[in-house]
Design a protein that fits this description.
Helix content: 10-25%
Number of helices: 10
Number of domains: 4
Radius of gyration: 43 Å
Shape: elongated
Structural class: mainly beta
Largest sheet: 35 strands, mixed
């Protein structure tokens, strides 16, 4: 009997040994086809194991699969939904024999998971098991859902995961219909679970939109109808900054809601942004920062209360409300008691390279009273842009005072709203030094995919000179009673082609102005403008002249120095060279100009500047102390000595005022010269002057035709070739005019 018992015991030991050791010596690669078939039956997808398949029980049950791929849903972009370089799983043997599942470790090496929403709305992670051919169950009431109870809790607690490690993982989400692609790369994590219901722990790092992050999370055990505590810490590699979010989630199974506390801080915001964006942020952000808030959210709304943002010594407080039903509606209110812009700008700014402007466009040569005729057409159409129609937002920013340039800008307020696919600037107000108030409003929309802005702006000041002095403009030479009152208002509009200020109405002291300006947004600068000023009292703005004290240079300093870089025969760029760099269409009028106690009336300038050629349609003065004049023609060659080709006309019944304003000391009384009429065709350049003129003066009628050549150059020797044909009704009377002047 004992022999039989020992034999049976020996047999059992052998069988157990075979059961435990046998799997280690079996070549499991021969079972790949059977495993793939079972996976395909359960999921409807094909499992391809290109690498080795290993399974062993001692010293602990473990599974290893290398180079495995699970096919994707039909119609998906990627051929595989899951691809693994290697999978390792180990299970606790003793716990398994007791009916529990204690997974010692799961290791996923270089997993790539493709999640996709297909064009038909199907999710590729929803599997469709293959049908086994059995008849479908008869229609009837569906089985009721089992209410979680003690048995389920026991099964949940019978599971334990000591460690799930992920090395260099990638998760891709695609929405084919909307074209959305999001990627999580470089996913490295250590995950543990005490049971199916927690507690859970996560620690690792990942990269989202090229932004590297470190993540640490703890979730406590889930209790039915109870609160679920959690704590999440976000950071960035190479930075001491941390963002902590801790709180609870309630009603997880029915209507989950969250209540949490947000807390974050760091010693250098610029360093944090640099580590997140891998680019150089503004150096002014290189200050300590902190953020805190209380948060509450559900599927219907999210609220952020008691928000405190701190950067350096500046602090902002506010609240955020987001409604999620029937679209998204957000209300943001932020307030700052003080913002020290001087301290913020004291740090050296990081230089940025500006992108190139769009392609060139053809200029317009037509005039416009409001300067709006210089409309341009871009060489390439701007990309379509659309503001969201299903999102509403209101942002209200208030700053009590801004310290700027050692003074204060007060009562700054910005109120912006987004609704119906348009952004509305409801209010922008500020009070600058010099009792200067700024206000603006407008709407930004995107009709037909092109951004367009239309609004109004106004500035009102009772002490403009105070504002200018604060801005760094020296106004000491302007009399103290000038540059006081200043008002301006305008309609502002713009799109990708141009920016326009139309309907400008302005007043400076006693002068009033109206008009408009248009600036073309293109590679070559261009603008059109039209301004009309009723009166300008230039004498009132000209301060006392400062006597110039001429000093002789020390002996030996006369003449060019040996190291002077002036090259003989080479003309340096003239002061008008800048006129080659932009195009313009300008109309300018002044009703009355007072200069040196003389009234100048009817000043007008109407012309265009295109590709370095200035066309004067009308440059005229109606009354210059009794004299009128007009210039028409074209000016060019602004790199050096300009050239002019056009006509000059002038007329006067009394040259006294003109001689005085021009500083001409006439040998005779200008009144005795009588009427003057001049008409001249003129062609002037650095090579010479050609004229064809008719002149009437002192009853003399003269025709002057000729040329003056070789006016410039290192070896210039002017040559005069002019013919004069003059007539006077009585030579003696003409002689008496000049004789009287000489005898006087």
């Amino acid at each position: 009997m004992k022999k039989a018992a020992y034999g049976l015991l020996g047999l059992i030991v052998v069988l157990v040994a075979v059961a435990l050791i046998g799997p280690s010596v079996i070549n499991w690669n021969g079972y790949k086809a059977e495993i793939s078939a079972e996976v395909e039956k359960a999921t409807g997808r094909t499992l391809d194991i290109a690498g080795d398949l290993e399974f062993a029980i001692l010293p602990a049950p473990r599974l290893r699969i290398s180079d495995a791929r699970l096919s994707n849903a039909p119609g998906a972009v990627a051929p595989h939904m899951v691809a693994l370089q290697e999978l390792r799983v180990s299970v606790g043997l003793l716990a398994l024999l007791q009916g529990d599942i204690e997974i010692g470790k799961i290791a996923l090496i270089a997993p790539v998971i493709e999640l996709e929403k297909l064009p038909n709305g199907q999710m590729n992670w929803l599997f469709a098991p293959e049908s086994d051919g059995s008849a479908a169950p008869a229609a009837g009431p569906r089985p009721s859902t089992v209410t979680p109870g003690a048995g389920q809790a026991k099964n949940a607690s019978a599971f334990r995961l000591d460690a799930l490690t992920i090395e260099n993982g990638t998760i891709v989400y695609r929405d084919t219909a909307s074209g959305t692609i999001e990627r999580i790369r470089n996913l490295t994590a250590d995950i543990s679970a005490g049971s199916f219901t927690g507690p859970f722990a996560f620690k690792g790092g990942l990269t989202v939109r090229d932004t590297p992050l470190t993540v640490k999370a703890d979730v406590r055990r889930f209790v039915e109808k109870g609160a679920l505590p959690f704590h999440v810490t976000l950071g960035a590699p190479g930075s001491t900054a941390e963002i902590n979010l801790s709180g609870t989630v309630t009603d997880v199974e029915t209507k989950p809601s969250i209540s949490a506390k947000l807390d974050g801080k760091g010693d250098n915001l610029a360093g944090l942004l640099a580590s997140l964006t891998r680019s150089a942020p503004l150096a002014q952000l290189g200050q300590s920062f902190a953020v805190s808030a209380t948060m509450a959210g559900s599927e219907k709304a999210v609220a952020v209360n008691d928000l405190v943002l701190q950067l350096g010594k500046s602090t902002a407080t506010g609240n955020i409300r987001v409604a999620l039903e029937n679209g998204i509606r957000a209300d943001v209110a932020v307030r700052m008691a003080s913002l020290d812009a001087d301290a913020f700008l004291a740090v050296s700014e990081t230089s940025w390279s500006q992108p190139a402007s769009p392609g060139s466009v053809a200029p317009s040569s037509e005039s416009s009273e409001a300067g709006a005729d210089n409309r341009v057409v871009p060489a390439t159409p701007a990309p379509a842009f659309e503001l969201p129609n299903d999102i509403e937002a209101n942002i209200d920013l208030t700053i009590d005072e801004v310290v700027a340039m050692q003074d204060r800008i007060r009562a700054v307020r910005l109120a912006v709203s987004l609704k119906g696919g348009a952004i509305t600037l409801n209010t922008l107000t500020a009070r600058f030094p010099g009792a200067t108030e700024l206000s603006a409003s407008g709407t930004l929309s995107a009709p037909k995919g092109a951004l367009t802005y239309a609004g109004k702006a106004a500035v009102r000041s009772t002490n403009l000179r105070r504002l200018l002095a604060w801005s760094g403009v020296d106004v000491s030479t302007v009399p103290a009673d000038r540059l006081r009152r200043f008002n301006v208002s305008t309609d502002v509009s713009g799109n990708s082609e141009q920016v326009q200020a139309a309907g400008i109405v302005a007043q400076l002291d006693a002068s009033r102005m109206s008009g408009g300006v248009t600036v073309a947004l293109r590679e070559r600068a261009a603008f059109g403008a039209s301004f009309s000023i009723d009166q300008i009292n230039a004498d009132a703005y000209i301060g006392k002249k400062v006597a110039a004290h001429a000093s002789k240079p020390p002996s030996g300093d006369a003449g060019p120095k040996p190291d002077d870089k002036t090259t003989p025969g080479v003309v340096a760029s003239g002061p008008l060279t800048v006129l080659n760099d932009f195009d313009a269409n300008l109309t300018f009028r002044v009703g009355s100009l007072s200069y040196q106690r003389m009234a100048i009336q009817g000043v007008r300038l109407d012309g265009t500047l295109v590709n370095g050629v200035m066309t004067l349609r009308d440059a005229s003065v109606r009354n210059l102390t009794g004299t009128s004049g007009q210039v028409k023609g074209a000016l060019s060659g602004f790199d050096g000595i300009p050239t002019f080709k056009g006509t000059i006309t002038a007329a006067s019944d009394n040259l006294t005022g003109f001689f005085r304003i021009a500083g001409i000391d006439a040998p005779v009384d200008p009144r005795k010269l009588g009427k003057m009429r001049l008409t001249s065709r003129t062609d002037a350049s650095e090579n010479g002057l050609t004229i064809d003129a008719k002149l009437q003066l002192a009853e003399v009628t003269a025709k002057i035709v000729g040329k003056v050549s070789a006016l410039s150059g290192p070896s210039a020797s002017p040559a005069l070739d002019i013919s004069v044909d003059a007539q006077h009704p009585e030579l003696a009377r003409l002689a008496n005019v000049f004789a009287a002047g000489v005898s006087a």
